[in-house]
Amino acid sequence: MGHVIGVDVGGTFTDAVVVTREGAVSSSKTPSTPPDYGEGIVHALELLAKGLNLTLEQLLKDTDYIAHGTTSSLNALVMGNVPSVGFLTTKGHRDSIFIMNVEGRYLGRQPHELQDIMRHSKPRHLVQRNLACEVVERIDRAGNVVVKLDEADARRVIRDVLGHGVKAIAVSLLWSFRNPVHEQRLRELIHEENPDVFVALSSEVSPRIREFARNATTIMSTQIGPGLQVYLSKLERTLRDEGLRGSLLVMQSSGGSIAAHEAAASAITTIGGILTGGVVGCVRMAERLGHRNIIATDVGGTTFLAGLIVDGEPVRASGTVVNQHPINVPTLKVEAIGSGGGAIAWLDSGGNLHVGPVSAQAVPGPACYGAGGTEPTNTDANLVLGILPETGLLGGLRPVRKDLAVEAIRKRIAEPLGLTVEQAAAAIYAVQNAQTGDLLRKIVVETGHDPRDFVVYAFGGAGPAHCAAYAAEVGVTEVVVPLGQVASAFSAFGLAVSDIVLVREHSDPLTTPIDPARAQQNFERLEADVRDAMARQGIALDTVELHREIDMRYGLQLGEVTTPVGTGKLDAAILEESVVDFERRYAKLYGEGSGFREAGIHVITFRVRGVGVLNVDPRFERLDKAASPDPSVALSTRRPVCLDGKKGFVETAVYDYRLLRAGHLIEGPAIIEVATTSVVVPHGMRGAIDDYGNLRIDTRRAVAQRVERSVA
To answer: Which of 595, 511, 514, 605 minimizes the C-alpha distance to 557?
Structure first.
């Protein structure tokens, strides 16, 4: 086997990790280069090659595949930076996308936000009203054609939509997942009018019941699909010209990769790919460290992402929410907010301080970059507080100017609030930690778990500066910051060691007891689809594993729970085991006694998850042992740092990570500087360097103090 490479393209930085044919691991980090992110990728690959004493051509020629993940699509959706698209649906159902099934006011909201009814509002509509149109057709719940598609009327509607200059159209018709014939014909009609228009069909993107969620998923996939298609095609050509002989893969939110040439057709599946890579990396790291329950957190330049690993397995979900809109695609359970290092701090009309979701991204970047940015960001606050070195980021490759950070915070935050610049920076830091802590609490508690039973893994360029604070906020007593060969490129490491994962699903509502023949037929068709898709990936697979699942719910309820189903020939006994398992899982999520079998149990969606196993075996090198726990040999300087607005600036030890060894203990407050990130060990906490070079922070004293204050 040759080299494998993972490349994580964020809105601000591009990370790359290579696992060589011998299992050695090395990484690189470089600024992202919007709008042409490919330039940053090539630069990151050049740095990898240089670290291996190879030319870029030599590295790529001996690479089996590059697994690529990007937050650009997710960032575009979160910030609303997407092009206008057309939307075609069944006559009489155009307004469903605007009514939002009454979910638009509460999807993705925090409990305290739900209680404040006067502040409820719907998000910006996904589609302009004049671009949402209806066609005459109707298919019933059994898949029978009740009203044939009126093709003459459809052509008129299509011409009208295209006349507004759109380059992409989403098609989502009633019950199309039972019979896609009308959606498929509409695609043909659209391409007869303009063969270059990007078309997404709900029967392919999200073949699941529930009209609004299917519409929203298809529209958002259409918004990002054309850009992803152009981007990946150009990137693959560039890499081929540079010498790549292997495959280009794209990470999906389902926990594995897909061939680049197939990614745009299901673009929405790629939006959570970055943290998915991080979760996969966490699973690999946890196997070495002996952790079973993990909260994986990735704080990049634009977004804060969090996912769960329970009993050694990533927690999965049948969908997620972005900007109060549901996304109906199988995914690792990942939550995202616009709260990365480049998140902009701002004041609302009432003078309340917010951080994010809008980001300064790589261009113009935080004010301190000196590239034209004037809005204060998390990075600017951290520089003013002394957390980041004034000598620059990325080992000095990214110069920073503190005076520009001070001016941005003074003008936008400090003076309007009557604060000093330092007080305003401390407030930004506190808001960032509080809102990220809220997100962690939400995802852990909502899956029926106690945060105190988990360990936080923190990665991403901005994660280590905040991780101890947001972990303590939710009662987690141990934080692991991977600082070995991968440092802040941990998501890229996960991309490199991930497998191919393809998911096929189909809604076929029925009630229990489940008909074994009908279930067998559904699963066999989905398994055949997965095998065919695996064959198109263009990469040799040692093994293909197929996992069956059913989404079930109680009658008169909407809460669906995904439940595994046995392999092989199905019979009544195997399916009844799945029903019993569903009831156990439901009780764990919603509480004992919350189920009501007498109302009936409904099967909603059948799903097959295929895993094409890629046997990548990275070698985690052990760090030399320290002569004693005293880390003073690595002490590089001391400087005033403010980690708590109440304590103000405190003379803080700053350590050079390159000089730390396994067994060194660092008492907070302290800063550990790595070329790609800065790690904060706050007051009352202790950090320890483990055998693999990771920093493990013990937050117990800080957590105990928070508990005492809450009791008082």
So the answer is: 595
